Amino acid sequence: MTSPDSKIVLITGASSGIGAATARRLAADGHHVVLGARRVDRLSALVAELRLAGGTAEYHQLDVTSRDSVNAFVTGAHDRYGRIDVLINNAGVMALSTLDALRTDEWEQMIDVNLRGTLHGVAAALPLMRARGTGHIINIGSSAAYRVDPTAAIYCATKYAVRALTEGLRQESRTYG
Hints:
- 51% of the residues lie in helices and 14% in strands.
- It has five helices and five strands.
- It has helices spanning 17-28, 40-52, 67-81, 104-132, 153-173, and strands spanning 8-12, 32-37, 56-61, 86-89, 136-139.
- By secondary structure, the chain is α/β, with parallel strands linked by helices.
């Protein structure tokens, strides 16, 4: 880490998109990023890129649909660094189809990744942050949390749920200082 103000930041779904962009920005700002996703080939390439640019980063295979995998990701980083400053729950999937297509496997995957994955992250990190008296959990949502689009009803439902979960966490956290 490059300064005393550097944070230990965990990012789920970091192999592409918003997660990868967030990792690039935070590493460039001097924070140590711990990246998790299923596609370790992409994570490996991203970590190499970040290190080449002078950042500090590491990666671990992560399946947010598995509570054990998320716990190992979070507690592993906590054990290595003695703290977790920020958890960014970013992993998400979006499968589009009309409801009458009955793609129930896709529905379950979106619920498992987008909502349960976020819950697994909160459950793993929150007790550690509470014990330390500090920390931030950032749940990446979507504008889909504020509207419903044709072919996106289930995706929007998961993002509405993440929005509600995040608001509940915010309200509960106000009581802890």
